[in-house]
Write a structure and sequence with these properties.
about 130 residues; alpha+beta; Alpha-Beta Plaits; 5 helices; globular
Amino acid sequence: MPPPTERVYYHVTFQTRQRRPLLYAETEAYLLARLPEIAQRDTFTILEAGCALTHLHLLIEKVPWADLLSIIRLLQIETSDSILQHFPDMALDLNLQSIWETGFHYVRHSDKSVEAVKHYIRNQKQHHGLE
């Protein structure tokens, strides 16, 4: 029997373009529904996702050989394109071609810290005083 595949965990944060408050309830719900669909087609899993108005937090689990930058670019491009197609007024009103800034922030985590990160991501609204 082969040994279990090691998994790698990253807490990733994307900022909205110019930190505009774009992730209101309807946009957030649409975004959070799209994320698992995108991950299902690739080499990673989204263990947790949470939004504040100006940014998205993700806990991504991936195999060690999967390129994190490629995963992030895929998520940024596909979610932005999908949101702007689904909410065309947003693209027109704000003159946006992407809802995300090009940069991102990430921190690698271990099996031991995954539950704490999940809890932090789940509580983003409370953390930012939105609940």
